[in-house]
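INTERNAL AUDIT FORM
Audit reference: QA-55
Scope: verify that the stored structure record matches its stored sequence.
Auditor: D.O.
Record contents follow.
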Amino acid sequence: MKLIYQVEDKPKTPQLIVFALQQLLAIMTATLVVPVIINGNVAAAIEKGEITWAFTDQMSPAAALVGAGIGTLIYLFITRKKSPVFLGSSFAFLGSMASAFTGAYTMALGYFGLILGAVLAGLVYVVIALIVKASGTKWIEKLMPSVVIGPTVAIIGLSLAGNAVGDLSSGPEPKISLVCGLVTLAVTMIASVYGKKSGKLIPFIYGILAGYAFAAILTIIGKAADVKELVLLSTEPFKNLLDDGSVTLKTFVSVPDLTFLNVSGAFESMNATYFMTVFVAYVPVAFVVFAEHIADHKNISSIIERDLLKDPGLHRTLLGDGIGSMAGALFGGCPNTTYGESIGCVAITKNASVISIFAAAIGAIVIAFISPFIAFVNSIPSCVMGGVCMALYGFIAVSGLKMIQKVDLNKNKNLFVVSVILIAGVGGLSVSFGKVAITEVACALVLGILTNLLLKNGPEDGDEDNTQKKSQTKS
């Protein structure tokens, strides 16, 4: 892929700000929604009577954004600014976080449980990084060659397809929401394909703004004509910005509810049972996310045509991800992970400049303190983000399929490996062991690895026929 900006390139400041904003918009919704889901799970547990004690803690989406920004900065520093990847809140740890946050088996330690879990998960990455540093990456290349990693990367994109399609029709009237989402997608595609250099670099901003404007027009018409089906925009996120009817400094700038500021008193309730609960909830999931870490870095490596597993090295990317997760949870409660949305953004815009990711990380931290921007992001209709994500997730899937272009699929053993991964992933095969859930991506990868190991030493297709011909010739 011919990149417009290489990893080490530094765009001019005005362009840099816009590029950073685009990265932020690509990753922000998913990063913000993780704590929202946890809060919803806690509220549901209280309503069902599963939590019988007084539980008032609420995770802060803005704090999660701070954690993502700080985690990304740490990742970039450890990887020597050679890997253009943004870290955001991990969905893989949703069940783990809910268990640690509410103390399902003991008592509610809240924020302390989130930090403890992230530290344990991060330590898994640190240990694996040390092993990789000592033994190299050849064993990983043998364990997960292109025939395994390629379709697995494709599954990462395809597994998110349902989310994109669901968001696309999310709203009072699915058909109207669909039109709005398709307008967003159309503008994004036109900007990327027909736009000038600036248009090709920031198609998502054009698409989101166009979709937002279209939704605003429909909302104005809907409220004027009292047609609820046309009301796609909600003013709810902006209500807290007003203080006695006017915007003040207090409502414009607010300090997020950072995780480490809310752990006082929790240590007194710490015990071995709770520690093991958190340990079992987080550590196995960390091994699952490790597999996705490799797939994501193989993917971005193919996009920028540089093997990040060799330079800066898998041990550095793992270390950056692990320590970044610890720091991210310290501030925002959420362990971090590499984001497919960020990688898709690099692929579509052909902008791999690490300084853009750096600026986006700084922007995430700053913006988390600016209430109006958080309110704006929260007000973007799901159908608009669905239109954008159709392109983002699609590019992830396609980039994975590109990895197997040079794989000979006329050979049955390669065909079986790819088939097993695609069907397991698309079919949504997942396995749960108590609080530990192995996602469809991880299941597909594990099955692919096992299939490859089972068949890799088998005879090449046609070998048996050649052997028979040779024996007939001798006779």
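Auditor finding: record pair retrieved intact. Residues 13-48 form the longest helix (36 residues).
Action required: none
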